[in-house]
Amino acid sequence: MTLMHTCFTVEITGKVAHVQMSRPDELNTMTAAFWEEWPAIVRSLSARGDVRVIVLSSTGRHFSAGMDLSVFTSGALSPAGEPGRVNMNRVLQVRHLQDSISSPERARVAVLAAIQGGCIGGAVDMVTACDLRYASSDAYFVVHETNIGMTADVGTLQRLPGIVGDGVAREMVLTGRPMSADRACEVGLVNAVFADHDALIAGVLEIAHEIAGKSPLVTWGNKESLIYARDHGVADSLQQIATWQSGALQPGDLTESLAAQAQKRPPVYADLDPEPGALPGA
């Protein structure tokens, strides 16, 4: 099943949805349509219940060159009007972009990013909101906002230190220098480096199908708890997982896991229920 969008294509195979940025000639820059389509796609796939993993990849030489120049030149960043009202509306605009970037964290499913070539500016924000990141050997990462006279404002500064450590994050942000794929793997920004784009896609899809074989309720619980623990202390996080388990820890998946082990077969877990209001097959 393949769905076409302005900036993305979506192909669903089994329990895995492969979402590809599809504007290679334009270096997959983040246009106005991008900011609307990406969260809508993630929400729709997460809501279905039968998709368990999303793989985000791209096409062409570069993963993404970041924010499209049209966003900067459209006048949206410097509208005319009474300064107080204009400035507060800009807050809403930034929050809208932040919400778009944060959509993978809100998904019930795992979101994996497969990165080739340049991952620049807003693309770094995008991939740091994903659960796992992988790269081809030609990939590089740049917090490019520093190089064009602005402070990154849609997620990199908030998520990157927790992924690579404070010192490495500060160096990336304050210098605006590119980080190679090998260095990114060394510091934990990516989990593995593949020889080329084809090997990257094949390898990440293989990992995605492995995750899709796990209980989707467990994957959802793992995500919720890891993100909560990142943003809260140990005591609060232990209370959160205790509350989660009070509802989610039921015998069905445990029983199936033990039966599958005894019978030496892969376990078969039920899909999540569709979210309220989800469109079948959307």
Distance between the first and last residues' Cα:
11 Å
Output the helix-strand order: EEEHEHHEEHEEHHEHEHHHH
Number of domains: 2
Structural class: alpha/beta
Q: CATH H level of the largest domain: which superfamily?
A: 2-enoyl-CoA Hydratase, Chain A, domain 1
Mean pLDDT: 94
As laid out across the biggest beta sheet, the strand order is: 1-2-3-4-5-7-10
Work out the oligomeric state of the chains in this entry. single chain
Main sheet record: 7 strands, mixed
Keywords: Fatty acid metabolism, Isomerase, Lipid metabolism
Family: Belongs to the enoyl-CoA hydratase/isomerase family.
Pfam family, one: ECH_1
Pathway: Lipid metabolism; fatty acid beta-oxidation
Notes on the structure:
This protein has 282 residues and is of the alpha/beta class. It is built from 11 helices and 10 strands. The strands form 2 sheets. The chain has a 7-stranded mixed sheet, with helices on both faces. Strands 6-8-9 form a 3-stranded mixed sheet. Helix 1 (32-48) links the parallel strand 3 and strand 4 (53-57). The longest helix is centred in the middle third of the chain and has 24 residues, at 83-106.
